[in-house]
Write a structure and sequence with these properties.
Layout: H1 8-16, E1 24-27, H2 34-45, E2 48-53, H3 70-81, E3 90-95, H4 101-113, E4 119-122, H5 126-130, E5 141-144, H6 150-156, H7 160-165, H8 181-197, H9 201-210, H10 213-232, H11 238-251, H12 261-264, H13 270-282, E6 286-291, E7 304-312, H14 315-321, E8 330-331, E9 334-335, H15 342-354, E10 365-370, E11 377-385, E12 388-394, H16 403-411, E13 418-422, E14 428-430, E15 433-437
Length: 442
Amino acid sequence: MIFIERHAEASLIEWKNTPDRKPLVIRGARQVGKSALIENFGERYFKQTHVFNFEEKKELKKVFAGDFDIDKILSQLEVYAGTEIDLKHDLIFFDEIQECPLAISCLRYFREKKLNTFIIAAGSLLEFALERVSIPVGRIEFLTIYPLNFEEFLAATNRKILFKALPRLNEDNLNANQLTAAAASALYEALREYSAIGGMPECVASFAAHKSFERVRKIQWSLVESFEADVLKYAKGELQISNLQSTWVKLSKMVGSEITYSTINPDDDHKRTKNSIALLAKAKLIHIVQTINAHGLPLGGSADEKHFKCLFLDIGLMFHLAGGRYTDLVVDGVILDAMEGRLAEQFVGQQLLAGPNAGSERGVLYCWFRSQKGAKAEIDYLIARSGKIVPVEVKAGKGGKLRSLLQYIKTYPKTEQAICLQERNDVHIDRGVTYAPLFSIL
């Protein structure tokens, strides 16, 4: 597999250079590239990396079965590694740590008794394992890894020149660089590819090597099946299993829509649907976008758990599971107008989660709904910038009215900035609203 550069490496370097570092736990769904990221990081920045994979070597669990004597544990790990571990210059990597919950609990003792040891743990379905152990609060750090975002996709497919051309919007530079016609055309072509392929590393590597959408579809089908098999282990009873399978597929066609449990499976018990959504979110296969009232920061202070939207783990998997094909991505010359604009909203949400500028608040995205009779309105995303709430509206086509955005500004007249992402080539500011291309970096 080709080497894929990831933005998360910057966070790993920052962690390494922090004098008072804590053990780092990497979260993320299966197959998003956690292990490859850490092993590449270890190879580039450490004298040696010692990988202990609890899934491959079940006997490793015995090391943590007794008391948490760190010197004794390190001695036994050296036996398994077949070499001495230099705590000042080597990286210790516990992979698939969810298979050994006691190893998770042990991380606190590395922090307390072997201060500043370079130790990283990673696992899939980690949230399920964390329920079974006492989390060493304050003694470990967390970092979540997502599928490749659009910038990483461009770099992985040998288009770094386009990576540099992307408009970048932030509080200091809302009027970002303008695109040439050639750059805009190339970026929208890459956006079509990204929407069908997504950011799962195996899919991106396959496309970079073979330029075959059919090869990618086979990989996507395999990933979907493996994800289903993973999460179904936690569904109890045939009725819950059936509900989970149905919910997983239906949510791929409901991205961007306000969700109630009755609309997903109207003929089933709402509690089962609620549990299915909770399981999918815990496995990081979907992301809950919470509704807030936008009166102030932090954004999550007014979150309404009964009203929410969902994002999929990955735009390519979403498109595949919903039955889409690459040729569907251009409708009357308009990019991402397929699936009634849901792809565009998935794309922007995925970039906010996985982008370099932390568009989410502590890993959570938020939206705004107003359901008053005769005055319904919806803002796709709300982000925090420089102590201010910035509404972000996503438009799949080249036009579209901004009734919701204008309604939001009317409801919150102190709004200083608003962003509308749509299919356009230029960045334009009009009456406090910044209009920018869909792929602009927020």
